[in-house]
Amino acid sequence: MHSANLRAGIRGVNFSGGQRQRVNLARCAYADADLVLLDNALSAVDHHTAHHIFDTCIKGLFAQKAVILVTHQVGHASRRKVTLLRSLFN
Predict the structure, then answer these.
(1) What are the Cα distances from residue 65, in Å, to 43, 46, 73, 87?
(2) Per residue in 58-89, pLDDT tens?
(3) CA–CA separation, 31 vs 15, rounded Å?
(4) 10 Å Cβ neighbour count for 19?
(5) Are strands 13-14 and 9-10 parallel, antiparallel or unpaired?
(6) In 3D, which of 59, 81, 86, 56 has the Cα closest to residue 71?
(7) 42-46 long-range contacts, CB within 8 A, separation 24+
(8) What burial class does residue 73 get, using C-beta atoms within 10 Å of its C-beta: 0-12 exposed, 13-18 middle, 19+ buried?
(9) Distances from the Cα of 17 to the Cαs of 8, 14, 60, in angstroms?
């Protein structure tokens, strides 16, 4: 099994939700795909960290990629050229 596909933990202790999200973002950057689908990737981190991830990773590392970001934090929409889609199930 390729090491990028292994489950991560420290001495058998599981990562927190925010740590898992950051590891998965790193895996997205490492994979170097043309399309990045992020489903609620900012939900398990605090406000400051979410802004940092958005600026550094989504606007930075993924700037030349097609990014689909599913989030409840619509404040990020004004910080990048995006198309907003509303839920059809409201």
Answers:
(1) 22, 25, 21, 24
(2) 888 888 888 888 777 666 655 555 555 555 55
(3) 21
(4) 15
(5) antiparallel
(6) 86
(7) 42/71, 42/73, 42/76, 43/17, 43/71, 43/72, 43/73, 44/16, 44/17, 44/18, 44/20, 45/18, 45/21, 46/18
(8) middle
(9) 12, 9, 23
Look at residue 80 in the predicted model and tell me its pLDDT. 55
Given a contact cutoff of 8 angstroms between Cβ atoms, the answer to whether 22 and 34 are in contact is no
Strands (E) located in 6-86 = 9-10, 13-14, 35-39, 66-70
What tokens were used for 6? 């292994």
Q: How far is CA 64 from CA 29, 41, 57, 61, 67, in A?
A: 12, 19, 11, 8, 9
